Amino acid sequence: MPRAPAAADVFNAVAESRRRDILVYLALRERAVGDIVAALRVAQPSVSKHLKVLREAGLVHVRRDGRQVFYRTNVLAIRPLQDWAAIFQRFWRHQLSRVRERAERSASGKGGKP
Fold first, then answer.
1. Using 50, 70 and 90 to split pLDDT, how confident is the model at 2?
2. Which residues contact residue 105 at a Cβ distance below 8 angstroms, ignoring those fewer than 6 apart?
3. Stretch 9-15: mean pLDDT
4. pTM (2 decimals)?
5. CA pair distance 111, 72, nearest whole angstrom
6. What percent of the chain has pLDDT over 90?
7. d(C-alpha 12, C-alpha 101), whole Å
8. What totals of helices (H) and strands (E) does the chain contain, helices first?
9. Residue 46: its pLDDT value, please?
10. Does 21 score more than 60 pLDDT?
C-alpha cells in the first residue's frame, strides 16, 4: 500500500529527523527562516522544503512581516502524536513499576525471580 504524502499526515511529516529538529527549535518561540538555517546548520533550500512539508501538515504556523517569514510550532497539530504515544505510557508505567519492585526486593535481601 503506498504511503500518504507527508503533508497529509503528521506522522509522516515527523518521520524525517530534520523536520523534528525544526519543530523542536520552533517550540519555544517563532523564528525566521534564516535563524533556523543558522541554528541547525542546514542549507536554506533544504530548510524551506522541510518547512513546506510541516506547513502543509499543519504542524507550523507562518507569519509574514515585510520580506521576512516567521515560523512557529503549532502545538495543537501535534496532539495526534501525543495521543498515539499515550497508548504506550501505561505499558512503560507497568514496566517501571516492575523494575522498582525488583530493586526493592533486591535491596531488602528477598531476591526473587529475575
1. low
2. 111, 112
3. 92
4. 0.72
5. 52
6. 59
7. 38
8. 5, 3
9. 96
10. yes
CA 96 to chain CA centroid, nearest Å = 23
Q: Where are the beta strands (DSSP E) in 14-111?
A: 31-32, 60-65, 68-73
Q: For residue 101, what are the domain limits?
A: 80-107
Let me know whether 46 and 88 are in one domain. no
- Tell whether the model's pLDDT for residue 111 goes beyond 70: no
User: If pLDDT is split at 50, 70 and 90, which confidence band does 17 have?
Assistant: very high
The domain total for the chain is 2
Q: Does residue 1 lie within any of the structural domains?
A: no
User: Is 113 inside a domain boundary?
Assistant: no
DSSP structural state of residue 29: S
Q: In the 8-state DSSP scheme, what is residue 28? A: S
CATH of the domain at 69: 1.10.10.10
Phi, psi torsion values for 57, nearest 5 degrees: -85, -5
Q: Is residue 112 part of a domain?
A: no
Q: Cβ distance 14 to 81 under 8 Å? A: yes
